[in-house]
Each structure stands twice: as C-alpha cells, then as structure tokens.
C-alpha cells in the first residue's frame, strides 16, 4: 500500500507539472488577413541545392491555402518555375513582392535581373514592389558598389518601387545605400540577435524608430519578421513552437497599431535551409512542411499541445521502472522507496521528452542516425543511474540486513571446525614478503589446517629457494611447490594445489602472496561452513601500506568503497563477487564445479558465479581479517584494474546464457547484481566511444558551425547529471558507510575517476576484440618509477586532455557560448575531461613516494552485517 501511495503521489506530481508548464497563454488573436508572407514553396524532399524544384501544381496548391489570409507574398527568385508565381498568385487575388536572387555569380545575377524586368512589365500587374537581392551585403557576396549599380539599373528600367533586403544594422552601417532605393526592405529577426521572446517586439519597435530617424524620407517595409519553432538557442532567444506563436501574435498586434507593412518569415517550413543556416533554418514556417499549422491562431496558446500524451507516457514508463526497482524492496525503508520512485520518474520524464523533441525534427539519414545514437545514449545513461540509485538506496535505507553473518563468540571454542587447506599462489614475489606472509599463517589460532605455497614459473632460483627453505623450518603443515612449466597462471597454480591438497581437507582457503592474516581469521570465518547451504565464506581485501604515501592512501580510499558498500549490498541477494584472497570455499563444491577456471584471468570471480549457478550460498563478512600490499605505482594500479575489468567481460561473455537467459539456478537477484555490478564499467567503455565521437563532432562544429550544431541542451544535460549523481552518491555513501571525511571521499573519487580510461579500454577489448590476454600480475614493493615514466603512465589521458581543451578553445573562438546548447555541450566536454585530469593528478602524486598521507583520515569500518 505504501508503494502504491508513493507511486500515485509522483504520478500526480508529474501530471501536475506538465499541466503547470502548459497553462494556456492568452495572446492577441491572429487577424483574418495579414500584409504578407515570405513564400518559399519547397516541400520536404525538394531543395535548390539538389536541383529538385516544386511543380506549378504544388505552388498553386500552396497559394490556394494562403488565399484569403494574406494580401501579398514575397518571393526570392524568378528562376525557372518561380518566375510563374506572380501569375499563379493573381488567380488567388494575392499581390507579390517580387525577388531576384543576387550573389557572387555575375552571369546568374544578369539572368535574374533580366527575367525580373520582363515579369514586372507584363500582365497580370500584381507586383507591388521589387526586392533585388537578399542579404547579399551581409553575406559579402556583393560589394556596396556592385549592389548600388544593380539597384540603379532597376530604377532606370522599371517603375515598380525597388529595394534590396538586408537586416536593420546593415542599413545603418551603409546609409548611402538608401539613396539608391525607393523604400527600405528590412529584416527584423530578433531571434538571430539573441533577444528573449518577451522583449523581441519592443526590440523591433525600437529599431524601427531608429531607422525612421535615420531615413526620415524613406518608407520602411519589414521584408522578414519571424521566429523559429525549433533549433538551437542564441543568448536569450529560445526556439520553440510556443515562442513562435507568442512572438508572431504579439508582433502582428503591435504592427497593426504602428501601421507596419511586413512579411512574416515564413509561410511554410523549409527543411532544405538546414544546410545553409543549421537545423534552425528549417523551422521558420507558420505551417510545417506538411502544410499543417504549428500553433493556435485564435485560441490561447498551449506550449505543448500533446502534453497530456507526454505526461501519460512518462507515468507509464515510470511505473514500469518502479515495478522493476521495487520488486524486491521489502527491506527498504519508506525514504529509500521514495528515492527510487523519484529517480524512476525523473528518468522516464527525460527519456520521453528526448523522444518527443526528436519527433519534431525533419530527418535525413545522417541526422536520424545521430539522433538514434543520442537517444540510445540517454537511455543507457539513465539505466546506469537507476542501477546506481538502487545501490544507493539499499546501502543507506535498509531496515535490516536479510542475510546476516554472525561472528562466533570469542569466549567459546566452536566445534566441528573443518580441516582447511590454505593455498598461496606466487610468481616471482620477493622472498622477504613471502616469508612474512607464511609467518602470519603459522600464527593462526586454528587447530586443523595446512598451507600449500605454489610458486609457478619463477625463473630465478634465488627468488623462491629461501621461501622453500623457510617452509621446511615450519613443519609438515607447510608444503612448498616450485612448478615450472605450469600453465594457467594463477588458476593453474590453484588447480595444482587442489590436486595436492590433503585428502581430509574439507575447505580450501586462498590468500594472495602479500597478505598477512590475523590469527583469528579461520576461527571466525571457517566455522560458517558448518552450515551445509554455504559454499563460500568471504572477507574483504584490506591493505596495510596505505600510510606510506599520499598515492597509496588515495588508492586505499578508493578500494574501501567496493568492500564496504557494493559487497554488502550484493550479499543481500547472495550475489557477492568472490575475490581470490581472504576467501574460503567448500572443497567438494569446488571440485563439483570443475575447479578454478583457466579460461578467464579473474578465476576467482568466475568461480563464485559458477558456484551460484549450481544453486549454492555465499556469506560475506565486511570485517578485515588480513592485510596485503597495494600497487606501488600508477601504472601498476591501472594494470590491476585492467585485469579486473577485462576478466569481468570475459565472464560476462562466457556466462551470457546464465546471466541473460536464465539457463542455470541463478535467481533474478543474482543475475541483476552481476549484470548491474558490471554495468558502470561497461558505461565507462561506451563513454570512451562517446568521447571519441564528441571529439569528432566538436571538430565538425568548429569547421562548419552551420551544418553541425551542438546537441539539444537536455541531451547534453544527461551526462552532466550522470557525473554529478555518481559523485554525490560516492560522497554521501563514503560519509555514511565508510565513515570517511570529505577529503578522503574526494581522494577516493579522484582515484576512481583516474581508472576510467583504463577500464574503458579493458571493457571494449574484452567485449568486442580480445578473446584471451596474458595474466597481468600486480607487482608489489616495486622500485618507484622514474619521473618521466610516471608521466608516461598517464600519457593517453594527457593527450585526451590536450585534445578536449583545444576543442573547447576552438568552440569558444569559432562559435562562442551564446547558445545554451553550445554552452551545455562545452560543459559536457569539461565533464568528459575530468577523469583524464584525475589520471594525471594521480600519476603525479604517484611519483612522490615521500608525500604525506596524513591529510587523509581512515576510521575503522565496523561491519553492520552482524
């Protein structure tokens, strides 16, 4: 019932929000007739650029539609079929302001002017004025001297009033031009000047007054006046159907008061103009390309006429998302469920809005393809946000944990403790570190265990021989094996150990070669295998060298999030990631599933998934029982994460049937966590593709800013929102679940972001290119890299920062940031740059082994899973 009330509340809020922002707007009514329309009769698949022109019949049909609502039309050329427009218009009692197209082509100009002179001087004599050239001076196609020569010629040859059409500022700039015309043909398009729609009519009145003062003896005709219904914004001017309706209805009312003669720009949408003016050029018509009115002429204006449909679609999609998010939410507090419902409704509203905006566009195959990719990208980002939100809610607002792992009372000695065989695989590890690891195992407070150390393929005998000799001093519990050659990397070593395990061993424990376990590790954890349902007992990875320098402290902060947030959440549905240290697995089940898999480089995570596929249980206790060593350099840190991410993609590919088709005993919660848990990494991979496409698109914007506009602002806002959402989630959960301060949380964020590029490469290679890769061992206690090498460690990220920064400067220089879309796109570029900057920062920090870690504070994390 609570879920239903929450859902109903947000549904009503969504519907009410749509209703609020679409309240009818009272504006002056459109009159029965207006002075004029700019008239271009091209249909959707027609364009002068491709040489496909309208027919006489379609032009006549357009004039029939305008008949009775307009006194005159303005044309732009007399070439071909357009030379017949005045004759066709006369049939409908429509006058014509006849235009001749003038540009740099002198021969074409001569043909246009000669044809114009001929048409003006023949019946039906409905040409009321002539306009020679359209913004030819603004485009710099003609010089002032060339234009005045053309105008003087026309004044000599015809009696009809003549002019040339230019924006108001060109007339002010070239006042001598007025001496060669009978009237001023002025373009008043405040949208192009970035004027908000609320001030646009007053702006025109002001400029008309200026022109009248400057040219008191010349009549003024507004040859173009209008507002686009779609396209990019410019400063304060926003293109929309509502703004087009508001502007035109207000302007027409004011023009009647002021006695202006004007031609509304324009009668019909012209998709072909997008190639000349950008996408916005296609949307200046009062009627769309299908000759349907785009807004109300007389009734109140509703910003989005279909708002009820959009609201209903948003609610229905949100309900579907909510059902998915809350299908297993019994342990969530009310505020957690409310949070998830809010995110679901936000996602649905944005997705529906993006689809609606896309439906308003005139599409060619390029724009359609780009649009589909953008929509899929938006949906993908929101999918990751929903997954992140689910983890956020379950980490912060659980009533209580459903799968609790109680540590045994220290005062009581558990009975029936299983015999545990502890396996320590090693390759080319420092002998001193290995001996410390073995000594810690020798201090275990546990009665029944053995330790097998498997050194596989270490070539230098002086590296492994001291370890073998030390094991001999510890008695028969400790057995050392040096095996060469041995295939299968770590998994091969572990399978070798399994073959040589004591016959009485009931459980296999694994630790990495650098781990020093606490004496009570097995006593506290192995006892849980007395529960026959449990096959895996897992404790978190932890590290003891985090205080050595700032680099390791930052990495340590990043590691803690997974083990104290992600793993705890996954444990609720028996879906932990088994990691190959501090893990204990029931021997019989390990053998049942075929041992450690050698086909992936993350054999530990794959083993856990195989065990779940067989229907067994795992237990996770977020208490540290042992500590290892972290990578010493940034490049080693990246190698480790590359291996993890690549291995995850191998597992996803090899176990696709179990994860996506439910071909095993995995339940839906386990499938969800394995897919959702790797989804952020997959998002990093596709985000890298997006970065490359964004680079290409930005280059095209700089080269040709008319053809290539920035995407819609709401599309650009989604990746910005995604970044902010993930950062906020991390800061909040680190504060509440890891008990980290702001500085520590930010350090973890920098370390995590620094790995984004590495993860992206691993994901893309793992999913689409590679089938196998060498096992990448993470070196411990390595010599600190030279300064130049440390800089090279972030070389690709540094290059991407340079490219993105250069493009940002190029956009600012070539296009500017007046457009909201361009501004948001630039912010997207900044957001895309942040992970690469983080990599540079961490790389620089890593070359300072003596840097202090004291500025980061780490409090012990007490498990709440008990």
TrEMBL record:
Known pathway: Glycan metabolism
User: Where in this chain does the record put each Glycosyltransferase 2-like domain?
Assistant: 508-702
**Cell location:** Membrane
The membrane topology of this protein is: Multi-pass membrane protein
Pfam families linked: Glyco_hydro_17 (PF00332), Glyco_trans_2_3 (PF13632)
Q: What is its main location?
A: membrane
Which UniProt keywords are given for this protein, alphabetically ordered? Glycosyltransferase, Hydrolase, Membrane, Transferase, Transmembrane, Transmembrane helix
Q: Which residues cross the membrane?
A: 307-327, 339-356, 362-387, 681-702, 714-734, 746-768, 798-817, 823-847
Annotated PANTHER family: BETA-(1-3)-GLUCOSYL TRANSFERASE, CELLULOSE SYNTHASE CATALYTIC SUBUNIT A [UDP-FORMING]
Name recorded for this polypeptide: Glycosyltransferase
Species per Swiss-Prot/TrEMBL record:
Thiomicrorhabdus heinhorstiae
